[in-house]
Amino acid sequence: MGRALTDGEGKVVVLTGASGGIGAALTHRFLTSGYRIALMDRDTRLLRNVAADAGNVMLIDADVTDSAAMRSAADAVIKRFGGIHVLVANAGIGPEGGITDTTEKDWLSVINVNLTGVFHTVQSFLPAMRQTSGNRSIVVTASVLGLRGARNMLAYGASKAGLIGFVQSAAQEVSVDGITINALAPGPIQTPLLDAIAGDTLEELIKQVPMGRLGTPEDIAEAVSFLTGEGATFITGQVLVIDGGLSGRAYWRDRSGS
User: Fold this and answer.
1) Is the whole model's pTM more than 0.85, yes or no?
2) What is the CATH code for 12-246?
């Protein structure tokens, strides 16, 4: 008996920001689902361990802030795989900083990567997606901080809020091509960046989450799998919050016990 086909058999996915914790979980999920995958990052040396199956994996050194590099990357993917069914724009940075201590350089750096970088990514890969047959999906990694404010995360929150507006507007355009585009809004996800938080602070954060735990990169991968799957073809322009119920809490009521 031959190998059973999986949901992603024969499909192609492009993933930016592939070297992080969420990127690794997404890579594993897509590969085990039978996708061919193009992994993009500014430094693909961190991805060499996933390139053992050269027939299914393509590594691309590219900076999302460089529009010419992104167009070249799109051409390379089409040359290698022939089409693009799924695009996951996951590249991003998250430095801290408030109104008075965020420099213009820092502000522009965050906006260029988190917001303009997604614009370059979608703009570069969309023509190929329009020429690809079958169900096609775009997923953008935003954040709950694009929906709720957070002290000392000014540029990051602004960039992620911009992404949500981008997704909602883009959905009105790409729907005529049968392409969906949605945003994820992760809350506290257990990645190396979050693990660097001091122990007591992290424990306090966990206590605030109604589900009683931090999210995992696999939680994000499950959501992406759904939004790019056959069951989500009528879902577009939406924001899926993945935070264990944290953003739905009325903190002042919790403290009073009523």
Assistant:
1) yes
2) 3.40.50.720
State the number of CA atoms in the 13 A half-sphere of 249 facing the CB. Answer: 18
Task: Please identify which of the residues 30, 35, 125, 156 carries the catalytic annotation.
Answer: 156
Computed from CA positions of residues 41, 164, 247, 227, in that sequence, does the dihedral angle turn out positive or negative?
A: negative
* Cα(50)–Cα(47) distance, integer angstroms: 6
Concerning whether 156 is annotated as a catalytic residue, the answer is yes
Sign of the CA dihedral with 236 first, then 115, 141, and 17 last: positive
Angle (deg, nearest 10), helices 154-174 and 104-111? 30
Q: pLDDT tens for residues 117-138?
A: 999 999 999 999 999 999 999 9
Angle (deg, nearest 10), helices 117-130 and 67-81: 30
* Residue 198, both tokens: 């001091």
Write the pLDDT tens digit of every residue in 95-106.
899 999 999 999
